[in-house]
Amino acid sequence: MYTYKRTFSILFAALVFNSCSTTQKIEALKPLPSDDTPMVFNNKTSFVNMPLEISLKEIENQLNKTLSGEIYNDSNLEDDKTEMKIIKTAAIRLIEKNGKIQTVLPLKIWARFKYGTDFMGLNDTREIYLNGTITMTSDVKLSNWKLSTTSKIEDFQWAESPSIMVAGKSVPITYIINPTLSIFQSKIAKKIDEAIENSCDFKPYVLDVLEKMSTPFLTSEQYQAWFKLIPIEVYVTDATLGKKEIKMDLGLKCNMQTMVGTKPKTNFDKTAIQFKAVTKIPEKLTANIAAISTYDSASKIISSNFKGKEFVSGSRKILVQNVALWQRDSKIIIALEMTGSINGTIYLSGTPNYNAVTKEIYFDQMDYVLNTKGLLTKTANWLLQGVILKKIQENCRYSIKENLDEGKKSLLPYLNNFSPMKGVFVNGTFNDFEFEKVEVTDKAIVAFITTTGKMNVKIDGMD
Predict the structure, then answer these.
(1) What are 61-77's pLDDT values in tens digits?
(2) Tens digit of pLDDT for each residue in 406-419?
(3) Is 92 within 8 Å of 63 (Cβ atoms)?
(4) What is the DSSP string of 324-391?
(5) What's the pTM?
(6) First-to-final CA distance of the chain
(7) Domain ranges of the chain
């Protein structure tokens, strides 16, 4: 059902600002162009508790689709001396009664019986016609994601008097048929149980919902941010029967990612997801979102942040025209292309960090790269005095409070009767997002955000 969102990417792009080395050396340290190898980082799994509610009306609808017209045909007279056809004449109705499902089934039954002995051909057959409504009660359980029932016929209400064919004539036998109905009961009850099991296999529904939720979707057009959910395991508890619905708890173990740049590939694999039965699932939803900002996309965003800004020291001033970022030895390298009192590229290094009080990302140990210092000693010693560096560093911080608030707000449509497919509805609530940590990889900066909340899924009105 869907936890996800939106300018988390901006957030991480801001993690981008620092470095190490001389022009010649820095160029040598730049990474090779990105390839298609998977991005590797220490991703924390999320756990989503999704209480699942399936209306009896939905099960009734699925059952009626499964059972239509002729619902049973046994044409072999020799195996048990009985042929039988059962035809459904109107819609089946399901009702909860005393913790069990009551099934009301309007039907017609035609049966042929063989009686007597085969010795010297001393046997005969008779045909019986029944038209009425059968009421059954069923114990309910969920096994291997299939709803299964054990049904027992409780009552018959005849629309027409039961009859038997004698010498080509229909003879009413109501007075004798009711006590002998046991011959039909096991066959009809078994057929209903099989139909419920076949029409109420919830695993395909769950997989379809997960596949929809696993398709990466755009969360921010401006920053080309995408959200992606990767299911790992699904858990389910025993089903319980309510007045109008069947309830069970689903648990989803998954990874959540927000990525900046081109649309991530969809790699949903139904066969790789493990399904496990459990006795209890924690009520709380815990989401750990890995927000990923590639260096290329981060460089573009930071360049736009510097656009039009002047850094002044006395009579000297510089403007940052372009920013390039990459990673080296767990530090962020930031290359600042400048014009003004200095025309050229200055390289800085720093470590991304986070201030939980101000909700800002900032950079510790920011300094000029060693060989840059040597260059500045000869040409722009004034830049080494720390004034410009301090001003740059002051600008190399980014409040993510608004982004966290916006991210939470952008999740709300996915928690307010969100329908990933017809007949499936997701609702829930989330608490505030908390920034956890930053990790630096060869390809991107990864920021981890956590939140808690609640979610529920309702199935009603599927095709």
Answers:
(1) 888 888 888 888 888 87
(2) 556 666 777 788 88
(3) yes
(4) EEEEETTEEEEEEEEEES--EEEEEEEEEEEETTTTEEEEEEEEE-HHHHHHHHHH-GGGGGSHHHHH
(5) 0.62
(6) 18
(7) 57-199
